[in-house]
Amino acid sequence: MTEKGRNKSAIITLIVGLALNVILGGAKLAAGILSYSVSVMSDAFNNMSDAAVSIVTIVAVWLSSRAADHDHPYGHGRYEYIATFILGAVIAMVGVEVCISGVQRIITPVDVEFGTVVWASLGASIGIKAFMAVFYAVRGKRVGSDTIKAAAVDSATDCVVTAVVLACALAERLTGTHIDGYASVAVAVFVLVFAVRILKNTINRLLGSRPSQQLLEEVKKLILSEPAVVSMHDLIINDYGEVNKLAEVDVVFPAKMSFIEVHAVCDKIESAARDNLGVKLCIHADPFITDDERLNKLRTRIEALLIPFGASAHDIGIDDCKKRVALDVLISGDNQPVNEIVGIINAESETLLGYGADVHVDYI
C-alpha cells in the first residue's frame, strides 16, 4: 500500500468511527432524556467525548500525510504518534475514573435499578463498541497504524466497562450482592495496564527507540542478498512516521571493485529498500582488502577473540607510519567488559605486529 493510500484508508477508518460515536451518543442522549436516566446521559456524553477525540486523531493523521517541507525535511509522520499519545491519555483517564467510581461503590454500595430503555441502550452500546473494536483492530493492522490500534483498545475498553456494569446489575438483581465496585476496580487495572503500554510505546517512538527486530532483519536480508556484498554493519533506522523510515548503513565491498560498480550496487539496494520496505536507505561503502597477509591474519585473530563476547570488528586498518592499528568494535548489550575487550585487542596487535591499537566501540 502506498503512503497516500495508507493515509486515506486510515482517515476513512477514523471517520467511520467518528460517525458511529456520534450516532451512538445521540441515541443514548435521547434514551436518557426519555427515561430520565442520568447514567445513560452520562454515557452519552462519554461517546461524544470519544467523537471529539476522533476528530483530533483525524486531524493528526491528515497532518502526518503532508509532504516534507523546508522546516520539516523528514516529513510530518510523527503527528500520528501525537494522536496515539492523546488516545492513550484518554484511555488512562477512563481507567482512573472507573477506579475512583469503583472505590466509592465499595465504600458506599448503591442499589442499581435499570429500566428497559437503559438495558436496551447499554446493550446496543456493547454491540456497537464491540464492532468498532474489531473494525479498528483489523483496519489498524492492515494499514500499520498505532493510532487506529489505540482506538481499537479504546472501543474495547468502553465495551468491557459497559458489559461489567450490566453484569453487576444483573448479579445484584438475582442475588442482592453488590459486586460492581470490586468489578470496576478490576476493570480499571486492566484498562490502565493497556493505557500505560500505549503511552510508553508512543513516547519511545517520539524519543527515537530501537526499530522492530523484524524490520532490522528484513533490511539486513535485503543488503546481504547482493552477491557483491561482503558484510554490513552500523545499521541505524530513524523513525519519522509509520511509512517514513530513514536509515543509514555501512556496507563492505571487495576493495578491487571499481567505484562505478560499487555505486551501481548501492543504487540497486537503496531502490529495493525504498520500494519493498518503505525505508529510505543511505549506504556508506567500506573497502575490504584481501591481498594483505598481515591484515588478513590480524582480522582473523581479532574476530575469533571477540566471538565469546558476542562482539564483532570492522574497518580494521594498519598504519605503518604511526605504527598503529585502527578498528571499530560492535558490542551487543550494556554490561559487556569493554576494557577487557580493548585490552585483548591491544595485546593481540602487539603480539602480531608490535603496534598499539586505537579501538572505537559502538553499541548495537
Name the descriptors.
364 residues; alpha/beta; three-stranded mixed sheet; 10 helices; 15% strand
Task: Explain what the structure shows.
The chain has 364 residues and is an alpha/beta fold. It has helices at 3-35, 38-64, 79-107, 116-143, 146-175, 180-207, 213-224, 259-277, 293-306, 338-353; strands at 231-239, 245-254, 279-288, 312-319, 324-331, 356-363. The strands form two sheets. The chain has a three-stranded mixed beta sheet with strand order 1-2-3, with helices on one face. A three-stranded mixed beta sheet has the order 4-5-6, covered by helices on one side. β1 (231-239) and β2 (245-254) form a beta hairpin. α2 runs antiparallel to α3 (79-107), α5 runs antiparallel to α6 and α7 runs antiparallel to α8 (259-277).
Walk me through the topology.
Layout: H1 3-35, H2 38-64, H3 79-107, H4 116-143, H5 146-175, H6 180-207, H7 213-224, E1 231-239, E2 245-254, H8 259-277, E3 279-288, H9 293-306, E4 312-319, E5 324-331, H10 338-353, E6 356-363
Parallel strand pairs: 2-3, 5-6
Antiparallel strand pairs: 1-2, 4-5
Summarize the structure.
The chain is α/β, with parallel strands linked by helices and 364 residues long.
Shape: elongated
Mean pLDDT: 83
Q: Within the largest sheet, what's the order of strands?
A: 1-2-3
Total number of beta strands: 6
Largest sheet, in brief, is: 3 strands, mixed
- Structural class call reads alpha/beta
H/E element sequence: HHHHHHHEEHEHEEHE
Using only CA atoms, what is the Rg? 29 Å
Distance between the termini: 31 Å
Number of helices: 10
The oligomerization state is single chain
- Strand percentage lies at 5-15%
What share of the residues lie within helices?
55-70%
